[in-house]
Here is the input.
Amino acid sequence: MKQKHLVRAMLVTILSIFLVSGAMAADVYKIGGIFSVTGSASFLGDPEKKTMEMMVEQINAAGGIDGHMLEAVIYDSEGDPAKAVSAVNKLIHKDQVIAIIGPSTTPTTLAIVNFTKRAKVPLISCAAGIKITTPVDPWVFKTAQSDLLAVAAVYQQMQAAGIKKIGILTVSNAYGESGKLQLLDQAEKFGIQVILSENFGDKDTDTTAQLAKIKAAGPDAIVCWGTNPGPAVVAKNAKQLKIDIPLYQSHGVGSPKFIELAGDAADGNILPTGKILVTSLLDDSDPQKKVLEDYQTAYGNKYSAAVSGFGGYAYDAVKLLAGALKGSGGDKEKIRDNLEATKGYVGATGEFNFTAEDHNGLSPAAFVMVKIKNGTWTLLK
Here is the structure.
């Protein structure tokens, strides 16, 4: 009889262990990531992946969210929209994540938004194209500054410099087309005339023909809109052609990778960027400075590498999601509602104030204009 009681007690104990283990597993908040970790856009996706992993570690070390640990499931899109679609389907149906961060680029993001919308899974993209959040989709947010704000920052600087006529050279993909649309639409407002518009392929290794046409048209400046490696090719070709007018780039090249690829041809290039590239030059009163310093220190200590604005997009996405997870119980609808209600979050990219009409939530203050001098970033006032 005693033995039966002992066996029963043991069974109860074993069952309790299994039940507790199951409860603990259920308590994990599983979140997805899709980044261009490899391929031509790896300069975007690699720091984003590393930043997401680092932030999840930090959150878990601090006790998680309402006692729930986070688990990050991350896939590499390689910058390929088809692979991004495959990844989002795995995250939604196989991994059953409650939110997704990424992708890294505009084309890969636009390829998956309908999937997250149908599945009602909150998505926080790290890409810039304004089409990602315009018109607003209830389930889609983004942390990268939009090209609408980027073009306005470029044109404001041109206006101050007395530039009236420009030629534009844009990459032939969703990012470039979105930038081109903004460059054309906003020009008149700033008293600027686009006298010639050319494009290039995202894998092109020579843009001298397009640049020669633009040079012959006689603009006061040239604007290149793309992400590496194309803009580095443009910078090198412009130097080879001895084009001595200002060359502006988009915020899509705001990382040390552009300087590495373009070499001394990067010098003199002007671009809008988040404050992360010029943290040490910011006034101590700037509310972002402490956030940026803390992120740079943590990332540098963990990976022995410099941060980029692209990693900053993932930093903000994880922090925003962490805030939205609080009090949600892991319910996707509540997470979505909490994201949309976010106000006054000061991050690496800027201050975010989401509304039902604005799922980017940034103001023009999220940008500064920089000029590359002697292989480093300098702040233009």
